[in-house]
Amino acid sequence: MTRIKAIRIDRNGGPETMSLKEVDLGAPKPGEVTVRAKAIGVNFIDTYHRSGLYPVGLPSGLGMEAAGVVEAVGEGVTQFAKGDRVAYASGPVGAYAEAHNVAAASAAKIPDGVSDEEAASMMLKGLTAQFLLRQTFKVEKGQTILWHAAAGGVGLIACQWAKHLGATVIGTTSSDEKAAIARANGCDHVIDYTKEDVAERVKEITGGKKVPVVYDGVGKATFIGSLDSLAPLGLLVSFGNASGPVTDVNLGILAQKGSLYVTRPTMFHYAAKSSTAFQEMADDLFAVVKSGAVKIGVNQRYSLAEAARAHLDLEGRKTTGASVLIP
């Protein structure tokens, strides 16, 4: 049993529900490894767990990803040894801690040339970009895509990656500052959704053709505009709820707007497709990062004790790129 500091919540609610406590960490179970964190990723899904949008058993830790060093290996684990640099993106929640026990099947070795902060902030967002761009809808050279919140953590990785794949990338942002960041990270066109009608601008940019796919991590506020940006038989990939969940949808509007498709995928289902799926996805991500085609921008750093402030900034749309906690 090891004594560590970790963020805990006893009830659902706002960032004020988070507190730094001393807790006991047991030995890793069979199939698990103990990872001593060097850097911890902060993601929107963490705010969903905290608020109760995605329920977790209470009391609970928070956080899904981190990078660090293997401190102990559970029974049956053969792919890792004590001292290995690894990054993970998986449950159970609890990455906001000095150390955490995680499933070895949801961890990957960090290659040389990738820093702890990069690895900690790229796994959940980067693997999300991987399955969205390479599996949910396989983006190909010559296509035009729309990505909402292009200056966000997933957006910056995905827009660079899509540009590398040869796509024309249209991104949406909420300010001139974020628009400049999006342009510097792969966006050919940027739409300020606070001032412009997104669907109309997409129609203008594409000469009336619109796009075959829209990637929407915003949710409620952008849902109809996303559908209106799609060409007939197009696919709306709804992968987040930054503005609230999409509810009470009349499926008839999909027919009215062009026999459209909608999917609500998660990284975890893609990573569970096979025993090697997680490692294969991670290898694909690390390869584009090491090639220089995708750069990981760690733009905000907080101490572990400042986790509540990190959530306030994230939900207040005050962040760009990735945020990390340093234990």
From TrEMBL:
Keywords: NADP, Oxidoreductase. InterPro entries: ADH-like_C, ADH-like_N, ER, GroES-like_sf, NAD(P)-bd_dom_sf, QOR-like, Quin_OxRdtase/zeta-crystal_CS. NCBIfam families: PRK10754.1. This is Alcohol dehydrogenase zinc-binding domain protein. It comes from Parvibaculum lavamentivorans (strain DS-1 / DSM 13023 / NCIMB 13966). GO terms for molecular function: mRNA 3'-UTR AU-rich region binding; NADPH binding; quinone reductase (NADPH) activity; zinc ion binding. Signal peptide: none annotated. Residues 13-325 form the Enoyl reductase (ER) domain. The lineage of its organism: Bacteria, Pseudomonadati, Pseudomonadota, Alphaproteobacteria, Hyphomicrobiales. Gene3D superfamilies: Medium-chain alcohol dehydrogenases, catalytic domain, NAD(P)-binding Rossmann-like Domain. GO terms for cellular component: cytosol.
